[in-house]
């Protein structure tokens, strides 16, 4: 079975882009190290196609080259946080109507290619400089949840889960900056994502 991981820096995690087997040092690598021993007799190929800084429109633009052309059985997507961050960091406008249009087009393109789509919800934790982003991020999450629950084969929610954990634990345990996961944060992502992936292993 072949699975492509598709997203931004949370997926990328310093992978060596000159090495097709490089999985980076984040949740994708942790997931691979957990998944392969469970199915030692199964040929499981995992490919990391995360690119730091990507937004939904970027994934749509490279979906054929970096996902469909590999003819995977499944794709695992985490995307969306940069659409919000880039508005606050660079003043780039976030058009939520276009965001929804791009998200739907991306999922439809992959589904029409016969690929199982597993969507991992982006998250934003309460780092001081990120709190102002929460209202806009909530509007984006509403679109992501509505679209992905309807269109994707699996949808794994993280924002509420991580923020719930932060009620009793400092957010820095899971991410140093509210966005990029620590090893423990990546481990949580891997442990929950693997449950969704295992439903589709064949």
List keywords for this structure.
5 strands; globular; alpha/beta; 47% helix; 202 residues; Rossmann fold; single chain; five-stranded parallel β-sheet
Question: Which SSEs are present, and which pair or pack?
Answer:
Elements: E1 2-7, H1 9-12, H2 27-38, E2 45-50, H3 56-66, E3 74-78, H4 81-90, H5 96-112, E4 116-120, H6 134-151, E5 154-156, H7 159-165, H8 183-198
Please give the CATH architecture. 3-Layer(aba) Sandwich
Q: Mean pLDDT, nearest integer?
A: 97
Distance between the termini: 7 Å
> How many domain regions?
1
**What about the largest sheet?**
5 strands, parallel
Describe the structure.
- The chain is an alpha/beta fold and 202 residues long.
- The protein has one domain (2-198): Rossmann fold (3-Layer(aba) Sandwich), CATH 3.40.50.1110.
- It has 8 helices and 5 strands, in the order βααβαβααβαβαα.
- The protein has helices at residues 9-12, 27-38, 56-66, 81-90, 96-112, 134-151, 159-165, 183-198, and strands at residues 2-7, 45-50, 74-78, 116-120, 154-156.
- It has a 5-stranded parallel beta sheet with strand order 2-1-3-4-5, with helices on both faces.
- Helix 6 (134-151) links the parallel strand 4 and strand 5.
- The radius of gyration is 16 Å and the shape is globular.
- The mean pLDDT is 97.
């Amino acid at each position: 079975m072949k699975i492509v991981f598709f997203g931004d820096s949370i997926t990328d995690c310093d992978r060596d882009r000159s090495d097709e087997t490089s999985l980076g040092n984040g949740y994708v690598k942790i997931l691979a190290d957990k998944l392969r021993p469970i199915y030692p007799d199964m040929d499981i190929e995992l490919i990391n196609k995360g690119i730091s800084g990507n937004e939904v429109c970027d994934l749509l633009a490279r979906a054929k080259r970096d996902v469909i052309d590999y003819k995977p059985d499944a794709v695992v997507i985490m995307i969306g946080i940069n659409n919000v961050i880039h508005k606050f960091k660079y003043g780039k406008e976030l058009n939520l109507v276009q965001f929804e249009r791009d998200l739907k087009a991306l999922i439809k393109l992959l589904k029409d290619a016969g690929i199982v789509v597993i969507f991992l919800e982006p998250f934003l934790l309460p780092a001081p400089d990120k709190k102002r982003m929460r209202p806009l991020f909530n509007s984006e999450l509403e679109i992501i949840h509505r679209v992905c629950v309807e269109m994707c084969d699996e949808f794994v929610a993280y924002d509420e889960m991580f923020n719930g954990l932060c009620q009793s634990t400092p957010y820095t345990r899971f991410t140093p900056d509210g966005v990029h996961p620590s090893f423990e944060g990546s481990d949580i992502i891997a442990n929950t994502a693997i449950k969704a992936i295992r439903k589709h292993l064949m």
